[in-house]
């Protein structure tokens, strides 16, 4: 019998370290006892109670809305920025543009959140003094902050895919008279669609998970789910927190499985297609 090597042991220990707390969390979400550390039998009471917890469900709905808007805006801006950086190698200010786009990757979130807070406070004062418009911090400011943070990740994902593409297909479309915008939408976008989807999911996850930025730029009535969980955990872990976390884990796992199944079917279809030379013959 083959003995496991050191790398396999470390891998399995790492997987256990990551996933064992999640399994324990799911198990204790079915705990009938109100005390998290005391097992009182199996029960679905806390899942049913989520529907009556209007404050927690409002935070979930708000976080999902912000994450959807953030992912959509980050993909739109990040794809255009990645296309400009990949296809236009030389233009004035390219180095500065690339540095500003990727700066959120290395910038501490505390610094980013504080800078955005000062920006929104100054903007609110300017709008109120010049136009008499009240600009309160809320879902809009959280959306702007999350989009600013997530664009950098989308740029990295999409740029890596654009660097692997054969530009001769795009050049052939341009030579045949297709406008640049039509070439981009009908040729480039379908070829980089998997990376766009991956960037969208990454931005959605980052927005749904963020706590630091939202804590700086949020206002009254705009509490997100991480902020709600963090404020509740400081007073002790409640069974409702375990239940909502288990629901999120189940939804993410189901979505990941669905995307894997779709990608696997698309890969099988591409392998079943005959080569280009056979189609030409």
TrEMBL record:
Q: Keywords, A to Z?
A: Cell membrane, Membrane, Transmembrane, Transmembrane helix, Transport
Residue ranges of domain ABC transmembrane type-1 in the record: 60-260
Q: Which GO terms describe its biological process?
A: transmembrane transport
* Family annotation (Pfam families): BPD_transp_1
- The transmembrane residues are 9-30, 66-85, 106-127, 139-162, 183-203, 243-263
Q: How the protein sits in the membrane?
A: Multi-pass membrane protein
Which family, according to the similarity comment? Belongs to the binding-protein-dependent transport system permease family. CysTW subfamily.
Indicate what this protein is called per its UniProt record.
ABC transporter permease subunit
Per the UniProt record, the source organism is Halopseudomonas bauzanensis
């Amino acid at each position: 019998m083959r003995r496991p090597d050191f790398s396999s042991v470390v891998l399995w220990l790492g997987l256990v370290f990551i996933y064992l707390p999640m399994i324990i969390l799911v198990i204790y979400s079915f705990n009938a006892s109100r005390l998290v550390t005391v097992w009182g039998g199996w029960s679905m009471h806390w899942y049913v109670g989520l529907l009556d917890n209007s404050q927690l469900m409002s935070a979930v709905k708000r976080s999902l809305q912000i994450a959807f808007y953030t992912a959509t805006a980050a993909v739109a801006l990040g794809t255009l920025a990645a296309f400009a950086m990949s296809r236009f190698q030389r233009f004035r200010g390219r180095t500065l543009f690339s540095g500003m786009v990727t700066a959120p990757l290395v910038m501490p979130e505390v610094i980013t959140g504080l800078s955005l807070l000062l920006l929104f406070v100054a903007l609110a004062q300017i709008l109120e003094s010049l136009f008499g418009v009240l600009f309160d911090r809320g879902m809009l400011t959280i959306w702007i902050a999350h989009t600013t943070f997530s664009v950098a990740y989308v740029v990295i994902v999409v740029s890596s895919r654009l660097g692997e593409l054969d530009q001769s297909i795009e050049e052939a479309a341009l030579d045949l008279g297709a406008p640049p915008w039509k070439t981009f939408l009908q040729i480039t976008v379908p070829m980089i669609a998997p990376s766009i989807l991956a960037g969208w999911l990454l931005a959605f996850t980052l927005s749904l998970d963020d706590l630091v930025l939202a804590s700086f730029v949020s206002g009254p009535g705009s509490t997100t789910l991480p902020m709600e969980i963090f404020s509740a955990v400081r007073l002790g872990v409640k069974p409702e927190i375990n239940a909502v976390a288990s629901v999120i884990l189940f939804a993410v796992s189901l979505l990941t499985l669905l995307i894997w199944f779709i990608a696997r079917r698309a890969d099988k279809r591409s392998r079943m297609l005959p080569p280009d030379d056979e189609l030409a013959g």
